[in-house]
Every structure is written in structure tokens, then in C-alpha cells.
Amino acid sequence: MSLNHTSKFAELTNEQFQLIGKIVVEWANIEFLQKQILSRLLFSPEFISRTYTDRMSAVKVQESIKESIALHRNRYRANIVNEEILHEIERVNEEVHNARAHRNKFAHFCWFRSTDEEICGTNFSAGLPESKKGKKSFITINNTELNRLYKESYNLVDKINKLIDKLPEIEEETLTRITLTEQLGKADPKSRV
Is residue 7 within 8 Å of 33, Cβ to Cβ? Predict the structure, then answer.
């Protein structure tokens, strides 16, 4: 049942639609940028890395980031990406993980207006009302809280962008300079990636 279609009073206000839209847009940015972090940690040009990250769920990307951090610590002894930056990536990854529950509700719940200042959402869970599943299947949120969630998402995007700038970037153009002699093991040291 489309709850916001049941009556004109259940339809979300333009402000409510706009706030949810802003949150969803910022989450698309967050998920794209998480893939960029993974690309940089794996020393892969961004376009090439999309051949594998495009097929990964957002949760799988986060798990892969954790594994890549462990790789940098254990194999490279944090010499390529230093420990401070690895900690920063972990903190941001945890922020993304903690905020994902809100994102999932906006993407997957059915929403209706309670008042001009409040909306309600449900996923129509089959759980009993007092069960854990039942309690997680319904949410009420006001416009102020929606705006706060949007601002948090927006700030998280800025934080991730700044973090990406601290990571080494392998440009695709560099890879195209590899010559046939390098491929055969007679590499020119000047053209190493």
C-alpha cells in the first residue's frame, strides 16, 4: 500500500520530499566516494576499479576497505598510507556504518505525512509490535531531524572528499605508458608507476 497516496493529507509536503531527496543524494555521494577510497587503497585507477566496485554492495565496499586497511598495516607496515590516515579511514568507515540505518529507512520504507512538521515510515514488517523486528519497522521523524540528517550526510561527504585527497592516486594515464619491454621484464626504471 502506498501510504502517501491514501489521501491528500497523507502526502508529504514539498519540504519533506525535498529533505528526503537531499539525504538520498548525499548517500549516493557517500557510496561513490567509499568506492574511491577502496580504489586508492588498492592502488587502482578509479575508472578501472569500477569494474569490480560497481558490482559490490555498499556493505561489501566497507568490508573491503577494512581488509585493505589491514593489508596496509600488515604487509606495508603503514609505509605507503600512514597510520594516522588509516585510523581516519576507520573512523569515517564507522560513521558511514552507523548512519546507514537511516539511509536504508529512507530508501526502503513507505512514508506518509503525520503533520506538516512530521512524517512516519514503515516497512510493513511481519514482526509483532513489541518484538525487536516490530519496533524497528516503524519510525516517526520531524522536519528538524530530517534536516539534521541531511547536514550530517553532507558533512560526511566533505570529510570523505578530504580524506581521498590524502591517499595516493594511481592515474590511468600512468598505466598507459607501460611499454612492451616493461611487460617482457625489461623495464625502464624511469617509467615505473
Answer: no
Q: Quick one: pLDDT at residue 97?
A: 95
Task: Count the Cβ atoms, other than its own, within 10 Å of residue 173.
Answer: 8
> 1-35 burial, b if ≥16 CB within 10 A, otherwise e?
eebbeeeeebbbeeebeebbebbeebbebbbbbbb
- 79 by Cβ neighbours in 10 Å (0-12 / 13-18 / 19+) ranks as exposed
Domain edges within the chain:
3-191
Q: Note whether 11 and 113 are within 8 A (CB).
A: yes
- Angle at CA 160, nearest 5°, toward 90 and 60? 55
pLDDT tens column, 70-93: 999 999 999 999 999 999 999 999
At residue 130, the pLDDT reads: 76
- What pLDDT score does 135 carry? 74
User: pTM for the complete prediction?
Assistant: 0.84
